[in-house]
Design a protein that fits this description.
The structure is a homodimer of 227-residue chains.
Chain A: H1 15-19, H2 23-43, H3 53-60, H4 74-97, H5 103-120, H6 122-131, H7 137-161, H8 169-192, H9 198-221
Chain lengths: 227, 227
């Protein structure tokens, strides 16, 4: 699930209207409102570590005690945020890597899928980009694990596609780490691009595609013994 | 100037002891205390955007009004932090790139210089890594400009070293951008490494060296017309 599939943070759960929903949906909406409230507060320049349970429930428009029906503590909410940011994207990227297309097209397609996802999940990515080196060790290591999953999945996909038959498993993973980190880094640039500037957006997309292609080019030449 | 050349944030400027210093030094010490106070607060999990002038002066152990004798506002303090993080490092890296050494050694040397600098300027790098995608547009674009200077200097150094004679200026810059972003990304990993684990530190350093070498390998093959 991603941020966009949820009610906007601006619309807290109204009790009256809420009564009309079945219990399960009601619970889900409150949970979503809490997550969106945390994202909203961080979008206002707050770090995750500085968020309090009471302000999250206040912004979400629910009573403080209801927080515990959904999360053990704010850390658990943060972990859900990390998971949400990666889950759907990982699936979409694996789709984009399905065999068939030439490597060049696969790279372009992956960059486009990623870019579209980042733009439609802005707050999640600002959260991940910021908290990757943020104050909470729990969240930092959760983000690290999530990024490792991207790297592992890409490594296994490329192995099955046999794009770099000469690379050792370690080197193939190093290549994928380089690509994943490059694209993670690209998220901030993508989000900071002035909206509507199509020419600049195209230049940026080409630049990201070229960076990944250059890494792949290096991977084709890479020999462990020589390095 | 870097963080380590300053009085530790724990030691606020004591008025009595301060009287003994010449006016210039006294002014410098207060300024450093304010900067260290901001770094300390961010190290406690606060985002730069959420820092208030009063708490910075409180942590620094000076009166609020004295802040304005050093900075126009908190943003100006943030800009100084960005500048401090890059200034010395840029000089050190240019040194490491001076002609003479083989490319392989130049890469290893640069990675080592960078690693040592990151470790001895921990708070500065956590600030840059976090605020690069943080809530303050002013700081974000200042960090972007600082990173661009690293890329420009590396581009001009590599051009003079004629390591990639076949690359167009645009492609050479793209290669340098890839390297600089990869190392900027590496800062968090370097800082999160358990201290004292020499074996792991060596593995990490080799991994960073290999990533840069692989990029250079790709750069040797890169042809604009083919991509």
């Amino acid at each position: 699930m991603t941020a966009r599939s949820r009610s906007a943070p601006e619309s807290p759960v109204g009790a009256d209207e809420d009564e009309l929903l079945p219990r399960g949906q009601r619970k889900q909406r409150t949970r979503d409102a809490l997550i969106d409230a945390a994202l909203q507060l961080m979008n206002e320049g707050r770090s995750f570590n500085s968020l309090g349970l009471r302000e999250i429930t206040r912004v979400a428009g629910v009573v403080p005690t209801s927080f515990y029906r959904h999360f053990k503590d704010t850390n658990e909410l943060g972990l859900v945020l990390v998971e949400e940011s990666g889950l759907t994207l990982r699936r979409m990227l694996r789709e984009a890597r399905r065999a068939g297309a030439p490597v060049k097209d696969m790279i372009r397609r992956s960059v486009q899928v990623y870019k579209a996802f980042v733009l439609s999940n802005r707050l999640h990515f600002l959260f991940v980009a910021g908290e990757r080196s943020g104050g909470s060790p729990v969240i930092r290591s959760a983000i690290r694990n999530e990024v490792d999953q991207f790297i592992d999945e890409m490594t296994s996909d490329l192995r099955h596609l046999a794009i770099f038959p000469k690379l050792s498993p370690e080197s193939l993973r190093m290549v994928c780490e380089l690509v994943v980190n490059t694209m993670l880094h690209a998220a901030t640039d993508i989000l900071d691009l002035p909206p509507g500037d199509q020419a600049l957006a195209k230049l940026q997309e080409d630049n990201h595609v070229h960076q990944v292609r250059l890494i792949f080019l290096g991977a084709q030449l890479w020999r462990d013994e020589a390095n």
